[in-house]
Amino acid sequence: MEEERARRPGVGLTSLIDVIFLLIVFFMLVSSFDRLQLLPLATGGSAESAPQAEPLILRLAADGGFAGGAEDEARIAAAIAAERPIVLRIGTGVAVQQGLDALDRLREAGAASAALQPEARQ
Description:
Elements: H1 2-7, H2 13-30, E1 56-60, H3 70-81, E2 86-90, H4 96-109, E3 114-118
Parallel strand pairs: 1-2, 2-3
């Protein structure tokens, strides 16, 4: 019986280490190293609350800027001064990260309420 135990091969750790290494490499490649942050979520108010001003709707260009250029910049400044909400519409050619960067720029400029909205498909 002792001869049988001596002949049985043990569990090979080499293959286990290889699999663990591949998993580590996989998760390193698919994970994002960007700083994660929470986005504020605007919830609906009560029925008794005062109606808000109509939002300023802007279109985000594929390069991450505003489609209206300098005209949009002036409209943004007026909307921030009037505390109007701002809605950024993103088309199919715009990356979500560009939309989030534009939201950050609006909040840094003093926008109290800004949101992303996908453009309607035609």
